Amino acid sequence: MKKTGFTLIETLVAVTILIIGVIGPLSLAARGISDGLFAQNQLTANLLAQEAMETIVNARNSNIINDPSTPFLNIWPTGNSDAQIDTIGVDAVNGTVDIDCQYGVGNKGCFLAYDLTKGYYEKNTQGGPFFRQITLYQPDPTTSELKVVVTMTWLNKTVAKKFTISEYLYGK
Question: Nearest 5 degrees, angle CA 53-CA 56-CA 58?
Fold first, then answer.
């Protein structure tokens, strides 16, 4: 009598080969998705940092154009002196610099969250995926030099990521 079918060992070997053949491409796909999300968050953080820097530069340029007698460093709302150089926020939609964006976990800065109805990132007191901190430094009080530092922080899964851009602005 002839036996037909597979033995238990043949079946286990076939299933093992099949699992190895399926797990490889699935792990590559999962890694690709993870890397894509990281790249998306990094690009978004970079654009939000550039947005803040451009808003600061625009405020400086507007002050120089609108009233050449206005002090170069006076880029925040009325009532704040040039000596008060601290962490600030920007409202890129309105093109304004503000000082009311000073919340966060032990830090001065702004949480930014995407607003689906408006179609852009904006300040959010409830938190958000991105945290932007803008700091102004005046390296030498006798000159019209201003160092603007923008630090972006976000979570990639459970790991905090951070980068900083800076630029020196000069007066007239």
Answer: 110
What are the residues whose beta carbons fall under 8 Å from the beta carbon of 85, sequence distance 6 or more? 73, 136, 137, 138, 146
Three-state DSSP at 123 gives strand
* Max intra-chain CA distance, the chain: 108
pLDDT band at 17 (very low <50, low <70, confident <90, very high): very high
Quickly list DSSP for 8-43.
HHHHHHHHHHHHHHHHHHHHHHHHHHHHHHHHHHHH
Instruction: Please give the distance of CA 161 from its chain centroid, rounded to a whole number.
Output: 9
Q: What is the pLDDT of residues 114-169, one digit of tens each?
A: 888 888 888 777 778 898 888 877 777 777 788 888 899 998 888 899 999 999 98
Can you tell me which residue has the tokens 């947005």?
51
DSSP strand pairing (130-137 vs 120-123): unpaired
Report which residue type is found at 42.
Q
Amino acid letter, residue 156: N
